[in-house]
Amino acid sequence: MTLIAALLLSVLVALLITENYGYGYWMISRPIFAGPLIGLILGDLQTGLIVGASVELMFMGVLPIGGSVPPNAQIAGIIGTIYAIQADSTALGITLALPIGILAQFLIMLAWNLNIYLVHKSDKAIVDGNTRKMELLHLSGILVFFSVFFVSSFLAIYFGSDFVSRINDALPGWVSGGLEIAAGLLPAIGMAMLLKMMDLKKFWPFFLIGFILSVYLELNVLAVSLLGLGIAAGISVISKSKENTETFTAEDSTSQNEQSLLKKKDLWRVFVRSFFSMASINYERYISLGFGYAMVPALKRLYSDEGEYKSALKRHNEFFNCHPYTANVVLGVAAALEEQKAQQGVITDETIASTKTALMGPLSGIGDSVFKATFMTIFAAIGAGLALNGNILGPIIFIVPNVLLNVLTRYFGVFWGYKFGVQLIAKMKSSDVIQKFVQGATIVGMMVTGAMVVNFVKIELTAEWTSAGKEIMLQELLDQIFPSLLPLVITLLFYFALIKNKKAIYWLMLICFAIGLIGRLLNII
Q1: Residue 421: left if φ>0, alpha if ψ -120 to 50, beta else—which one?
Q2: Which of 66, 185, 358, 470 is packed most tightly, with the most Cβ within 10 A?
Q3: How far apart are CA 510 and CA 77, in angstroms?
Q4: Which residues lie closer than 8 Å to 144 by C-beta, 6 or more apart?
Q5: How far apart, in whole angstroms, are the C-alpha atoms of residue 136 and residue 248?
Q6: What is the distance of C-alpha 3 from the center of its chain?
Q7: What is the CA radius of gyration of the chain?
């Protein structure tokens, strides 16, 4: 690859990956979408579809929950796709995704640490009342992420592709074949991670139903997910008939004033700015500076006194961490509380701080478990199933619902959070809306995971022998007794390993490679 081509491609890669933190969290850097996009640009869409879908499945259960920084699926999928196309080997691109994803951890950790400096500089800007400087410091986090990803991507693309191609050509057959087997086993780790997160002990019947539907009726992931949705909806309808439902009307609003200080355009500005809330995420205060950045339009409207304005900026630059979608509810509630403080003075700084802290936990749980671990995963599984068959609809089915979720949750979070204040969360809790939604999503997720084990975890035994003049193949014998038994057993074994040891994921990845290489060398897999 030429220098100019490598530079241009590295810019694109850095822009794609930066969205995961710097702007919007649109999911366009996920392997299922970015892989085909890179493949289309490099003239090999099919390889992009296959590698992107495979890496998505591999990292499906590896999610950055809270402040954790796991192996990065985005970088792994993009660079893995580039390597696969350069080396003309999908198996090599998929297997290299693992070490690439692990190395990417350190890049992200570096960016997070660099952003601590921006937060400290913003403290002084707030004291000086220099809002413009504070905003620029926060947005500089985008440049930090872009620079880290650009430099690393360029080094990997310009110097790595030819090297990888030479390695691939020199690999003996048993090694390249072993890597293909490992690529088929790695999705089992993602399935096991999902089973752990979605509480297999409680919801195992739905996992079994999804597995059986896929094995014996040969239904694909999309069909199983639709059946799961129907089952979840049916359970919800039956449970509703046994209890009284509650309604949430505007009368429940915390607003006590007929005349609002905040205008609709102020809340719109808060909404737009929320897409950049993670730009300066760091290990010290996480997205505190992003929260304050989003609140600036509301605070400017509410506080004409410079001292009060500075105090408001300062209290919103304290520790804050929440899923970027559900964090907007806290933004809306905080805006309502700030308005009451500005109008009546009965709301204290401590009240605002404690309210934000109280909402962080449950809203983070909803964002991580429902939106990230379940909603995204279901559409990723459906999209990956199509993409593995070379269907371009795969990445589209994944990206459209996730973009809509991003926009709608942020919009309604701000406007409903402001309108109903803290009673929004209280009402949701008292009416069990969250609990029912999580239960329904888990039922669908469990059934989809059962189907994914059948469709995406690939391992076949090649052992055979002759008895009474008849050739017997071990894999065919197993399929007659219990189809897809090996994928199921391997996934469950991985699940129990993850239950016993949270860090077992690294050992399991090594085990996948060991099984593939040894199995191919001995010609038993």
Answers
A1: left
A2: 185
A3: 19
A4: 111, 114, 115, 118
A5: 40
A6: 33
A7: 25
